[in-house]
Design goal:
InterPro entries: ABC_transp_permease (IPR001851), BCAA_transport_permease (IPR052157). It is found in: Cell membrane. It is a multi-pass membrane protein. Keywords: Amino-acid transport, Cell membrane, Membrane, Transmembrane, Transmembrane helix, Transport. The structure is a single chain. The protein is mostly helical. It has one domain. The protein contains eleven helices and two strands; from the N terminus they run H-H-H-H-E-E-H-H-H-H-H-H-H. Helix 1 packs antiparallel against helix 8. The termini are far apart.
Length: 291
């Protein structure tokens, strides 16, 4: 019994860190621009192919080298998506629905480009770290510990940026009141672009952490996007703290469900938990942005 609980704890901790870093990118865009980016999973998978090209597929860089190249490239890609895909649609009537449909179409474009360029065969990435350690009688891969540590570090850096950095404070101001932020001189379009850039960076960072664990495939971004969407709704649209709580709660639920019922019950149980929370708190655990 104790061994099972320990397994659930470590599994939930690792899954929670992964889900947290991935879902925060989706939440960040909605919080700043009110755009529900259905292309987020496809952007994540495109970044995963970029990581594969930079390591096994082309340049043969190690993971620190891939990080140094992929992060700024992902940020620039996010800026371009906001400027040329999202911003023109925002100036039209019914822009919320229009941007949602636009991102959905952009997701199909990215998926098919990845399919044409890289083919249908899944790609494998080398592990971040080799070996394993024993913790409380449970064998934990060093790669899992590295993923958890790096993901939690990224979450802490993002939270510090949003709390103390002037640009982060501007993003929070826009998320709370766009009109008021514009009146006091904040360049709202610049904040929108920054939100998309940071979101793309988070997607790329998650891809870098997860590509050694899961295969890289053209349609592989949709399952994690679905989970990220559930986490964001569960935590509260636009709430970073809510997303963090929701990610770990659902991760521990998932670990317990796998241990007791098997993996096929994960999403049904997730949605039952989500519906139960929304019945009590329709805006999610800590929904504040997007009021």
């Amino acid at each position: 019994m104790m061994l099972t609980l320990t397994n659930i704890f470590f599994s939930g901790l690792s899954l929670g860190a992964i889900y947290c870093i991935f879902a925060l990118g989706l939440s960040l865009v909605y919080g700043t621009s009110r755009v529900l980016n259905f292309a987020y999973g496809s952007m994540y998978m495109t970044a995963a192919y970029g990581a594969w090209l930079l390591s096994d597929g082309w340049l043969g860089l190690n993971y620190p080298g891939v990080f140094l190249v992929l992060m700024p490239a992902a940020f620039a890609f996010g800026l371009l998506v906001e400027r040329f895909v999202i911003r023109p649609v925002r100036n039209r009537p019914q822009w919320k629905t229009a941007t949602m449909m636009t991102t959905l179409g952009f997701a199909f474009v990215l998926d098919n480009l990845n399919l044409v360029v890289f083919g249908p065969t899944a790609k494998a990435m080398p592990p971040l770290m080799e070996g394993a350690v024993q913790i409380l009688g449970v064998t934990v891969a060093n790669q899992t510990l590295a993923v958890v540590g790096l993901a939690l570090l990224a979450v802490a850096v993002l939270q510090a940026f949003l709390t103390w950095a002037p640009l982060g404070q501007a993003m929070r101001a826009v998320s709370q009141d766009m009109a008021g932020a514009a009146i006091v001189g904040i360049r709202v379009n610049r904040v929108f672009a920054l939100g998309f850039g940071l979101s793309a960076m988070l997607a790329a960072f998650a891809a870098l952490l997860l590509s050694p664990v899961y295969l890289v495939s053209p349609l592989g971004g949709w399952p994690p996007f679905l989970k990220a969407f559930v986490i964001v709704v569960f935590g509260g649209l636009g709430s970073t703290q809510g997303v963090m709580w929701a990610a770990f709660i659902l991760a521990f639920v998932e670990a317990a469900v796998i241990a007791v019922f098997g993996a096929t019950w994960i999403l049904p149980v997730w949605f039952v938990v989500l519906l139960a929370v929304l019945l009590v708190r329709p805006r999610g655990l800590m929904g504040k942005w997007g009021n």
